Amino acid sequence: MEKKELLTKGKAKELYKTSDDSKLVMDFTDDTSAFDGKKIEQLAGKGTVNNRFNNFIMNYLDSKGVACHLLEELNDRESLVLSLDMFPIECVVRNYAAGSICKRLGLEEGLKFENPIFEFFYKDDDLGDPMINDNHIISFGWAESDDIEILKKLTLEINDHLVDLFLKADLILVDFKLEFGKNSGKIYLGDEFTPDGCRVWDKETKKKLDKDRFRLGLGDVVESYQEIAHRLGVNLT
Ligand code: TMP
Ligand code: ASP
């Protein structure tokens, strides 16, 4: 499989074409971004942790029957993935109150929700990723109604699997964001599942171990990602 030219450069990943049109190389860089790209820094070693972390989670979800775009880990920072036609939407699920929902609804951080809360956001940094609902998605042709139902169902199913997995490692999965896409009519989990796109707290101390450490300037960002990985049994070497 020959790696070819850069297809897209995201805030923390780069996607390259390959000699096979249906496959792409995903490169996890050390770039770390917050607040829709307003704060960006290089954190040595983050790309490697995130690549290995993502592959561990996607392999786990695959074993539970969730179709994921991951095909093969290539090296420390790169993996081969199936090329998807991505929905321009972010699927967020929240188990505890944190981040934007606290500001929006005046909630205290740490409030446990009776049932997970699902939210859609429109993927657009210039607009600050605004929250949207099914009607916006259908009106603007971002996905069809059957697909919307599948995205909600898959996200909540993934939440059930991962909440259990994290709890066994004494970790609370507070919330996370997923992105999905289609290949040959089938929906796959795309993008990534890493501490860049979720909130994870220590079960006892409630210490933040995810990208909030970077957003809030708490330090030890990569070390905390490694701590989550270590507890879950991700092989980082
Ligand atoms: P929020 O509290 O900022 O809305 O974020 C909820 C979760 O989704 C949190 O784990 C961070 C993640 N997220 C991203 O990774 N990227 C995004 O663009 C957004 C809106 C959320
Ligand atoms: N993922 C978005 C960004 O990089 C939002 C965030 O994480 O704060 O800017």
- CATH-defined superfamily of the largest domain: ATP-grasp fold, B domain
CATH architecture of the largest domain: 2-Layer Sandwich
Note the main sheet: 5 strands, antiparallel
The gyration radius over C-alpha positions equals 17 Å
Strand segment count: 15
Element order, helices and strands? EEEEEHEEEEHEEHHEEEEHH
Shape: globular
Output the strand order for the largest sheet: 1-2-3-7-6
CATH class of the largest domain: Alpha Beta
User: Any low-confidence stretches, pLDDT <50, length ≥5?
Assistant: none
Bound small molecules, deduplicated: thymidine-5'-phosphate, aspartic acid
Structural class estimated from helices and strands: alpha+beta
Could you tell me how far the N terminus lies from the C terminus, measured between alpha carbons in angstroms? 24 Å
Whole-number average pLDDT? 98
Q: What is the count of helical runs?
A: 6
The number of distinct structural domains comes to: 2
Q: State the CATH topology of the largest domain.
A: D-amino Acid Aminotransferase, Chain A, domain 1
Question: What percent of residues are in strands?
Answer: 25-35%
Percent of residues in helices comes to: 25-40%
